[in-house]
Amino acid sequence: MPLDAFRTSQPLTFGVELELQLVGLSDFDLTPASVDLLHLLRRKPFPGNVTPEITESMIEINSSVHTAYRPLLAELLDIRDTLVAASDVLNIGIAGGGTHPFQHWSEQRISSKQRYQELSALYGYLAKQFTVFGQHVHIGCADGDDALYLLHALSRYIPHFIALSASSPFVQGHDSGFDSARLNSVFAFPMSGRAPFTLRWDEFANVYFAKMERTNIIHSMKDFYWDLRPKPEFGTIELRVCDTPLTVERAAALAAYLQALCRHLLARKGDVAEAPVEDDYLVYNYNRFQASRFGLDGVVTHPKTYEAILLRDDILATLDLMEPHAQALGSIDALLHLASAASDGNDAAFLRGQYERQGSSEGMVNAAIRRFRGERRKV
User: Fold this and answer.
1) Helix (H, G, I), strand (E, B) or coil at 226
2) Are 169 and 353 in contact (CB under 8 A)?
3) Cβ(232)–Cβ(221) under 8 Å?
4) Tens digit of pLDDT for each residue in 138-168?
C-alpha cells in the first residue's frame, strides 16, 4: 500500500524512546522479567508509555511529546522513579547501556508479540543478537520536505550523537575496543545504514518507497533500520544511532541537543553553501566508524571541506554554536551537561573505569544499575 502522507506536526517538538536492560540481582545477567514487570506497571498510571521489546529481558519506555527540555527531563525522571519502584518489588535491576557486557545471545527469549516472532523467523539468530539497547529521538516537522532536509543536513552530526551516547564497550564478556559496539549489531541487518538522498517527499514516497514496496522486501517504514528515518504517521524524523545512556539526564540532554541543531539547520535552510548534497555521504560511513570505535577521541572528516577534526573538538565547537538556540529553547543546562561529557568522558569511559575499579563485569553492571537509579557517589 502507498506510504502514508506526511502528517504535519509542530516543528521542533520532540520525544524520547529508551530501551532498557532488565537484570537479575543474583548474578547481574539479563533476566526475562519483562512480562512480570509490565503486568505490575499496568496496575497504576504510568508516566509516558512502556512496552515489551524484541527479547524478554528488555523493555522500551516512551516519553510524551514535548516542546521544551525541562518538562521532558521531569517526565523521564518520573518514569525512572516509577520503574525503579517496580523493579524493587520484583527484586530486579534496571540499567541503561547499549549492550549488556556478558549476556549470551543464545539464552535470550523472543517476546511473544507477533512482529517480533516474524522478525525472529526472518532474521534467525540476528534477532536474539539484537538484544542491544538504544535511544531514539523524534523531532516534529512541518512537512515531508522539511523532514528530508533535516534528515540529510543532520548527517554531518551523526558522529556527535554516537560518541556522546556511547555506552557499549563490552560484548560477550570482553572489551570490544569500541565505545559503541551496539551499532555493529544494527549494521548486520540488510536494511540498515542511511536513507537514499532525496529532498522531496513526493519523490521519496511515490518513487523510492513505491519501488521498494514492489520488491516485496519493504512493507512499511518500520522495515528500514536507518540511522535517521522519517516517520510520516507521526510527522517526525527519528534519530536511531544513540546507545541508551546510563542516566535519563543524558538522554534528555541528547534530545535537547538534537532539537537545537534542527532549529539551527532550519534557520539556514536557504544557505546554498551548506545545503545537503549526495557527496556529503562520501565520508559518512568512515565518520560513523570513527565515532563508534574511538568515541570522543575519533577523528572525523568534514563532509564539505574534507578537513580532519578531532570529534571532541568538533562537538565542543558545535555546542558553543548552538548556544543562542539553546537560550531560545530553554536548554542551556542540557548543552552544559554534554560539554562536560565531551570534556570528561562518555558512559563508555565510565563503564571501563568501573570495570577496573570493581574488578569484575558483575560489579560494572551493578554500578550501571545504581547510576540509572540516580546514585552519583563513586561505587
Assistant:
1) strand
2) no
3) yes
4) 999 999 999 999 999 999 999 999 999 999 9
Q: Which residues contact 324 (CB under 8 A, 6 or more apart)?
A: none
C-alpha cell at 316: 565542543
Of the candidates 236, 334, 363, 344, which has an alpha carbon nearest to the alpha carbon of residue 295?
344
In the numeric block, which cell numbers belong to residue 205? 514516497
148 grid coordinates: 528530508
Task: Return the C-alpha cell found at 311.
Answer: 570529534
Question: What pLDDT score was predicted for residue 379?
Answer: 37
Put residue 16 in one of left, alpha, beta given phi > 0 → left and psi -120 to 50 → alpha: beta
Q: Which three cell numbers stand for residue 39?
A: 503486568
pTM over 0.90: yes
Beta-carbon contacts of 181 under 8 Å, excluding residues fewer than 6 positions away, are 98, 99, 168, 169, 170, 171, 292
Closest CA to 256 of 103, 100, 26, 73: 73
Q: How far is CA 337 from CA 31, 242, 249, 251, in A?
A: 32, 16, 8, 11
* DSSP structural state of residue 174: E
User: Which carries the bigger pLDDT value, residue 19 or residue 120?
Assistant: 19
The grid coordinates listed for 9 are: 506536526
